[in-house]
Every structure is written in C-alpha cells, then in structure tokens.
Design goal:
Blueprint lengths: L6 H15 L7 H24 L5 H31 L4 H7 L3 H13 L15 H23 L3 H12 L8 H16 L6 H20 L4 H4 L7 H17 L1 H8 L5 H28 L4 H39 L3
Helix pairs in contact: 1-2, 1-13, 2-6, 2-8, 2-11, 2-12, 3-6, 3-13, 3-14, 6-8, 7-8, 9-12, 13-14
Length: about 350
C-alpha cells in the first residue's frame, strides 16, 4: 500500500492536531478546523462546478451526497459518545428524559441527531467537535448562493465575511457558517481562480507557519495565545481564535498545494480516516481524562500514547466497516445520477 504524502495525509495530520488540542494545553485545534473549512471551500466549489452545477437535480444530488458522507460516522460517534458520557457521569438518561417535557424539545433532539442541523444548540453534545459539521452542512446548503456572491464581489467577499464575523462574535449566530465564511471563501476563491501554488511556495508557507507557532509560544508576551487552555487564561480566551485564524491564512498555500497532490491508496485511507479520528476521539479522550487526567505530564505520556493508539484503531475500524462500504454505495448512487 502506497504511503506517499498527499491530501489525505494532510487532513490526517490536521485531525491529529485536534486530538492534541483536546489532550494538552496547546491550543491549535481551531486552526486545524479553519484549515478544514478552507479545504472544504476549495473542494466543494471545484466539485460543484465540475459535476453538479449544470446537472439535472444537481443541487439535490449534491446535498444527498454530502449527507451520506457526513451522517453514518456521525451516528456511530454519537453511540460511542453517549456510552462514554453515561459512564463518566456527564449524561444521565433520567435527567435527559425529565427535560424532554415538550414536543419541540423532543423533535429538536431527534432531528439534530438524525440530520445534524441543530446539533450545536442542544443542551448536551455527546460529540463536541461536531459543531464544525453543523457549520459544514450549512455551507453545503448555501453553496450555490455563496458561489454567486463570490462571482459578484470577487475578492470583496473576504472583507465582507470578516466584517460579518466581527459583528456576530459573541452571539449564537457566530457559531454558524456566517461566522466562518471567510475560510470557506478563501478555498472557493483559490478554486475559482485556479490558483496552483508552487511546491516551493507551499513549503515556505508551511515553514513560516511552524516558525510563527514557535515564536508565539517562545515569547512571554504571546505564549498564552496558543498555550494555557480556554478555561484558565484570559489572553487565550481573547486571542486564541484570532491567532489560529492567522495561522490558517499563512499556511493556505500549503493547504491548496496539498489538495492537488496525487496520493496513493494509503493516502486515501488516511484522508478517509481523518474524519473518523475527528469524531471518535472525543468520547475516548473523555475516558482518558477521567482515568488519567489527574496525573502529571510525564506520568500521563504512556497512557496518552495508548489512548492515541486506541483512537487510531477505532477510527480504522469505523472507516473499514462503516465508512468504506457506505462510500462505495454512495459512489454507485452518484454514478447513476450524474
């Protein structure tokens, strides 16, 4: 099996960065998610223009295809997540049932777990990283409108989306696609303009990003922007999102360059597994924190390594026995309709 570096390995590294974010004080997880949004903007615009824009029932087929991609592993991760949360005491079935005293609440719970939309606004999320999937789904639903807006305003969509994000910051609406449209538009513009960064430019952007992370952490003035934890440090709370946004922009040439690489079978597996890692690590990290979170850093390392191996094993099994068969069925479905 070929393990040549490609777009799959890049996404896999981003998913591992989110895992590190949730098991340490290094706060780079938001930047990884922003890069995922850039990649999504790039790929979805490309596939929309090539396959769906002019097809009969193209929008409907596109949405169905994306739901098939998102939902099966989301359902599986929730099963694991609720089992872990019941074990750790984060979720009580009796307390939950007592809260389901109205039909709207019950419908909200059922609909958001079946179709993602509304999941972010639940009283309890078994899979906390799934907030970004809600944003992704909103992006898919609005993609044709965003394509028209991008063509109309060109580069102007970037300052517009930044202005909207600042206006919404601190409100519930910030957790929607409108709060993160800047990153989707970055990827969409790269696709629309057919921007192909050279390998040298891409590698330079990656090096600059690593150096920038190092400088931010090493400097006493900016150390807390990336290190400290959201619940422990005011500087982190105030500047971490903005610092991660800057890193996502700086690494954009590497991001777009990686999307056009030709990976082998192993790379495709890593790319598909990245989605499973992103979802299933959350409940496993919850168990890890319960059992070993009170230990010191050095004492925790062997257990962290074991937990990471378990995450990879469960993710591989989810890819092999759930995601891969579903994607094969989806490919046959799309072949008959596009």
């Amino acid at each position: 099996m070929s393990l040549k570096f490609g777009p799959g390995a890049y996404r896999f590294l981003l998913a591992l960065l989110v895992l590190v974010h949730h098991t340490s004080s290094l706060g780079l997880g938001a930047g990884a998610v922003y890069v995922f949004f850039c990649l999504s903007g790039y790929w979805m615009h490309t596939v929309w223009e090539k396959k769906y824009a002019q097809a009969d029932h193209g929008y409907r087929t596109f949405i169905v295809a994306r739901l098939i991609r998102l939902l099966p592993l989301f359902w599986l991760a929730n099963v694991i997540g609720y089992a872990a949360d019941i074990y750790t005491g984060k979720f009580s079935v009796d307390a939950w049932w007592a809260q389901m005293h109205s039909l709207p609440k019950l419908l909200h719970f059922a609909f958001s777990h079946l179709f993602l939309m509304g999941y972010y606004w639940l009283d309890h999320m078994a899979i906390a990283p799934a907030w970004s999937l809600v944003v992704e789904l909103q992006f898919y639903l609005l993609l044709p409108v965003m394509v028209v807006l991008m063509r109309w305003l060109g580069w102007g969509v970037l300052p517009l989306s930044v202005a909207v994000a600042f206006l919404l910051h601190g409100s519930p609406a910030f957790g929607t696609v409108f709060g993160y449209a800047f990153f989707f538009f970055l990827g969409m513009l790269a696709s629309h303009l057919k921007w192909t960064p050279s390998a040298r430019t891409a590698q330079a952007s990656g090096l600059v990003t690593v150096l920038l992370v190092g400088v931010l952490i090493a400097s006493p003035t900016t150390h807390s922007v990336l290190v400290g934890g959201a619940g422990q440090n005011h500087t982190y709370q105030a500047w971490n999102e903005l610092g991660n946004a800057l890193l996502a922009v700086v690494v954009l040439p590497l991001t777009i360059w990686s999307a056009e690489l030709k990976g082998g079978q192993g790379d495709r597996m890593l790319g598909d597994m990245s989605y499973a890692v992103y979802l299933v690590h959350a409940p496993l990290v919850s168990l890890y924190n319960l059992w070993f979170g009170q230990l010191g850093l050095l004492d925790r390392l062997p257990y962290w390594a074991a937990m990471a191996l378990v995450v990879l094993g469960v993710s591989w099994a989810a890819w092999k026995f759930v995601d891969k068969p579903v994607m094969a069925w989806r490919d046959r479905y799309l072949l008959a309709r596009t």
